[in-house]
Amino acid sequence: MPRIPKRCFSKAAICRQSGQTSSPLDAETHDVVIVGAGAAGLALASALTRPSSSARSCRIALVEASDLSKVREWSLPSDQYSNRVSSVTNRSLSFLKTCDLHSHLNQTRTNSIQEMEVWDGVSDARISFRASELLGREHSTNMSTMMENLNLQRSLLKTLQSNSSIILLDKTKVDSIAKPNDDANSWPLITLDNGRVLRARLLVGADGFNSPVRRFAGIDCYGWSYDTQAVVATLFHPSRSTGNTTAFQRFLPTGPIAFLPLSPTISSLVWSTKPHIASSLRSVHPDVLSLMINAAFRLPQISLQYLYDYISEKGRDGLQVERNELADEIRWREAAHSIQPYSALSSTSDKQGDISEGFDLLPPLVEHIQAGSVASFPLRFNHAETYLGEGLGSRTVLVGDAAHSLHPLAGQGLNLALGDVEELASCIDDAISHGIDFGSRTALLPYVRNRYFENHKVMSAVDKLHKLYSSQLPPVVWARSVGLEVVNELDSLKTALMLSAGADSRTTPNPWNAAADGVTLVNNGIEFLKTGASVISGTVGSAVRNVLKV
Amino acid sequence: MSFLRNRNLQCLHLASKRYLTTQPSYDGHIPLNWFENAFLAVGSAVMSLADPRRGDMVAALGETTAGPALPKLREKMLASAEGRQVLKARPRVNSKTVDMVALSKLPAGTFGQSYFNWLERCGVTPDTREPVRYIDDPELAYIMQRYRECHDFYHCICSLPVNVESELALKYFEFANFGLPVAAISAIFGPLRLDSAKRSRLFREYVPWALKTGGNAEPLINVFWERRWEQNVEELKKELRIEDPPPARWGKPLSEAAREKRRRELLQQASTSSETP
């Protein structure tokens, strides 16, 4: 790939000329310096220090700008949850288990997801995933595990602290990164804001979307920001007889809204929507927001659009949206669409329990929202051109959000980051056991080779899904709905989708199952056409009879 | 048909256009599939052209060809405070819901009185409107019904009598204002039934007025006519940005409606007596 290496030494905040850096003699030498102690950075440090790793005797430093004691001491009562949660796939979880995650993870705050309901907000075409039906009895019946990001980070941090070979430098910012005397072959020097200088055999950028390490390494990014904000909140709702193990996602033309179960009566919301709608959703009272959430899973698009306009108009006029008034508006819209009060699609009647037909196809009705849990953040697509620095940026590698960020609609951000970490750790392991310098380009190339396309595949699939479902054009809606329903009938394809999304790391789909499904589909198709032909001939017949009668 | 059938949708009874629904969703609803709809559209078009007095066929033509125009009207109504009140109250217009005696007692110059006079003068009643049958969404069906029942209000506010040229002028007006294809179909094929003098007057005078006024006026579907009986009709026209059309065949201002009516009756008597020996 022809690429003009764009040096970023113009960016004064990051890079200083070599003359200004401290003499290499004062520097502490480390094998690995990880910048950023988010989930990716913590997981990499844990992976490198686990007993099975050949890197466990390396000197590893983890630099983090914020105060890690906040993560360490993070604790919430059992009826409250943090609003930032992630779905950790079985594959990611089995990797995390090798890093001794479970000795400190608070398992009562995690919840397994066994079913998934995804549907089209315009046409109502639907796809259902049920792990127990698709993966069979011999496998675990969950697709992924929901957990709070802080729960995961805290347990990784506690594991790390029991390990003395890690140097944790929190409340410390990276002041500058440079190569002594502009020598591409030397090790990078990381100057911290407290004056310490670290020399790294390998510098890992796990420092998030605005990665200073990426800028130092001169790696360009490719991407854009979506005209979309994600609103998150922690939701309280009544428990269901069927338990709370189903994740729900409805694709609205403004973006998908997702309901992620955390406990029998608590779930998390991720509602991607247009920025102006997001800001009015954030500004209303939480009781009003819970009505809007219930409606957003149920009402047709035209009425939702009306409700968005309703709350934003009130906000513009400086008026409070009253819960009762909004409930009246929703009741009116339900009546306009002939939604009966006893229907599962009605969100305003005070029906008790799971009495409506099809209730399990929609999330439980939100009753209220945890105080202070409503927040929003912008969404973007971003992929670094490579994960390895070259020339003056050599001995640098990127993982997690520093390398890529994507739309949260498939819940893959953390899982891609953990995939990177697993691959990078095994690359370093291999290099050490073969006696190669693991900071060298040759040692790290397999990491890029194995991850870049893998990540890009998921990222572009998610991006295309977002764009496909933003459309309300009838032919597009028709095509995507037929496609979704055909996939919904093909169990082996659904299994393959689930497996490739990380539901299980051990099995691969059997192609003969797919073939058998294909034959059934063709048969059904012929049957369908036959029925269709008889319906048409019947219609023509009756229409002709009608005309003759006239 | 099991191949495209979705268990989930059947459970929820979601009214979705892509699925053939056989249950009526409101009183008098006749669900049609796409083929029946297309067949009825063509059939009713032929019948309406052959005999424009077949109100049922014109109505069926309007419903089967509505397409995306009705959802657009609904968007307009939801965006307007008055339109939302119409959708919430769903008022109907007929001699039972409209108190004609009260209208006749309103002061001269009010919209209510003008409407009463117009009905009297043209000898029509609001009870002859066909009910909507073939539109699946109950709210869209109501909007169609409202458009149809308010037709006489459009006549009244535009000061147009009931004759072929005026009806056609009003169809152009309605097409520009509502965007419903049925108005365009009538507006295109209707003039075939006029003689050339009337047709040339229609296109020279009425059509430019109709397109201009219809396009510039407020969307009339949003107007809650029943709450404006007491408003001055000139004020109402100004508010809705409706300009007077070129003088129609009766050619007199509205305040002289009663006299005009008497004169027309006399004329008619004279002409009929001269025709019959």
TrEMBL record, chain A:
It is a peripheral membrane protein. PANTHER family: UBIQUINONE BIOSYNTHESIS MONOOXYGENASE COQ6, MITOCHONDRIAL (PTHR43876). InterPro entries: FAD-bd (IPR002938), FAD/NAD-bd_sf (IPR036188), UbiH/COQ6 (IPR010971), UbiH/COQ6_monooxygenase (IPR051205), UbQ_mOase_COQ6 (IPR000689). It catalyses: a 4-hydroxy-3-(all-trans-polyprenyl)benzoate + 2 reduced [2Fe-2S]-[ferredoxin] + O2 + 2 H(+) = a 3,4-dihydroxy-5-(all-trans-polyprenyl)benzoate + 2 oxidized [2Fe-2S]-[ferredoxin] + H2O; a 2-methoxy-6-(all-trans-polyprenyl)phenol + 2 reduced [2Fe-2S]-[ferredoxin] + O2 + 2 H(+) = a 2-methoxy-6-(all-trans-polyprenyl)benzene-1,4-diol + 2 oxidized [2Fe-2S]-[ferredoxin] + H2O. Pathway: Cofactor biosynthesis; ubiquinone biosynthesis. GO terms for molecular function: 2-methoxy-6-polyprenolphenol 4-hydroxylase activity; 4-hydroxy-3-all-trans-polyprenylbenzoate oxygenase activity; FAD binding; oxidoreductase activity, acting on paired donors, with incorporation or reduction of molecular oxygen, reduced flavin or flavoprotein as one donor, and incorporation of one atom of oxygen. Component of a multi-subunit COQ enzyme complex, composed of at least COQ3, COQ4, COQ5, COQ6, COQ7 and COQ9. Gene3D superfamilies: FAD/NAD(P)-binding domain. FAD-dependent monooxygenase required for two non-consecutive steps during ubiquinone biosynthesis. Required for the C5-ring hydroxylation during ubiquinone biosynthesis by catalyzing the hydroxylation of 4-hydroxy-3-(all-trans-polyprenyl)benzoic acid to 3,4-dihydroxy-5-(all-trans-polyprenyl)benzoic acid. Also acts downstream of coq4, for the C1-hydroxylation during ubiquinone biosynthesis by catalyzing the hydroxylation of 2-methoxy-6-(all-trans-polyprenyl)phenol to 2-methoxy-6-(all-trans-polyprenyl)benzene-1,4-diol. NCBIfam families: Ubi-OHases. Its cofactor is FAD. Residues 31-242, 395-428 form the FAD-binding domain. It is an enzyme of class 1 (oxidoreductase). Keywords: FAD, Flavoprotein, Membrane, Mitochondrion, Mitochondrion inner membrane, Monooxygenase, Oxidoreductase, Ubiquinone, Ubiquinone biosynthesis. It is found in: Mitochondrion inner membrane. Its EC number is 1.14.15.45, 1.14.15.46. This is Ubiquinone biosynthesis monooxygenase COQ6, mitochondrial. The keyword Membrane applies. It comes from Sistotremastrum suecicum HHB10207 ss-3. It comes from the Eukaryota.
Automatic annotation (TrEMBL), chain B:
It is a peripheral membrane protein. One of its GO terms (molecular function) is 4-hydroxy-3-methoxy-5-polyprenylbenzoate decarboxylase activity. It catalyses: a 4-hydroxy-3-methoxy-5-(all-trans-polyprenyl)benzoate + H(+) = a 2-methoxy-6-(all-trans-polyprenyl)phenol + CO2. It comes from the Eukaryota. Zn(2+) binds at residues 151-152, 155, 167. Its cofactor is Zn(2+). Its main location: mitochondrion. Pathway: Cofactor biosynthesis; ubiquinone biosynthesis. It is found in: Mitochondrion inner membrane. Keywords: Lyase, Membrane, Metal-binding, Mitochondrion, Mitochondrion inner membrane, Ubiquinone biosynthesis, Zinc. One of its GO terms (cellular component) is extrinsic component of mitochondrial inner membrane. InterPro entries: Coq4, Coq4_euk. Lyase that catalyzes the C1-decarboxylation of 4-hydroxy-3-methoxy-5-(all-trans-polyprenyl)benzoic acid into 2-methoxy-6-(all-trans-polyprenyl)phenol during ubiquinone biosynthesis. Belongs to the COQ4 family. Component of a multi-subunit COQ enzyme complex, composed of at least COQ3, COQ4, COQ5, COQ6, COQ7 and COQ9. This is 4-hydroxy-3-methoxy-5-polyprenylbenzoate decarboxylase.
